[in-house]
Amino acid sequence: MPVRIPDNLPAAGILESENIFVMSESRAANQDIRPMRVLILNLMPNKIETETQLLRLLGNTPLQVDVDLLRIHDKESKHTSIDHMNAFYRDFNDVKHKNYDGLIITGAPLGQIDFEDVTYWDHIREIIDWSQQHVTSVLFLCWAAHAGLFHLYNLQRKLLSTKRSGVYCHQRTDTPHPLLRGFDEEFYAPHSRFAEMDINELQQHPDLEVLAHSDEAGAYLVLSKTNRNLFVIGHPEYHRNTLKDEYLRDIDQGLDPEIPRNYFRNNDPQQKPVARWHSHGSLLISNWLNYYVYQLTPYDLTDMSGITPWESEV
User: Fold this and answer.
1) Which of 32, 59, 247, 306 is the most exposed place for a label (fewest CB within 10 A)?
2) 163 is in an annotated binding site
């Protein structure tokens, strides 16, 4: 089934060239179907790149998904034209009276800044608080995962001495869990961040469950016991060249970055990166949409009262 996006969104052409089914708003208006409604709060600098990455994953699922794009403020973006933002993005005041099946909050290049010093931190907190009553399930990515764990559970992150960048091997929990259906015992995922969470604190928290971790990179998938919040401490949405682009950008800025781990063939930046996470990235988003959005969300989005946790599986 397709992901429905605004007419003329730049991501449409890219996704169609990859044989990913997308549908314009005008075409979808003629269909009689209850699609999943997903809101994306895009905090990344290059909005179009991140839109495309997330829509690529959403468009690979068997569900029809209607997507709204949300911005945190109306200030001009350095990397995305104001015309694009005004044409395709909504302000929070435009959506806060609505309910959504899912919300995705992206990462942000704010890993070395205290949360309270982020200029729009109050807006982030407001949207997270709103989501707990108006959204069936919230997917927090990377920086947003740290921010959500801090705001909702008062868990502090730890800053790293160097940026953790690369593609790391992860192990899933042995506990049967809907989110992990189809997952291999070991799988790869990209990381690009300046902080980490204490995995022992996450494992001991009564309201959280660690579903996957890496011996090198730490916790990766953390789910709230209510199923409403999924924290993905990494970037399953990244394109093959995203870590390379970040690495070259950091070099251009004179930051002397380390070569991303387990990423370039033979660990040589002159060779092509090896993408080994796309299948599990797609599976993760498909499982989230199916088991934590579609299976739990009410048909009538005006009633969000009947959402219950999954029971343990045999």
Assistant:
1) 32
2) yes
Positions annotated as catalytic residues are: 142, 235, 237
Tokens of 238: 């990244």
224 is in an annotated binding site: no
Rounded Cα–Cα distance for residues 228 and 307 (Å): 9
Query: pTM for this structure?
Result: 0.87
Q: Is 98 annotated as a binding residue?
A: no
Where do the domains of the chain lie?
A: 3-157+196-238+278-294
Strands of the chain (E only): list them.
3-5, 22-24, 36-41, 65-70, 89-90, 100-105, 135-141, 157-172, 186-197, 208-214, 218-224, 229-232
Q: What is the CATH number of domain 3-157+196-238+278-294?
A: 3.40.50.880
- Residues 170-221 have pLDDT tens digits of 999 998 899 999 999 999 999 999 999 999 999 999 999 999 999 999 999 9
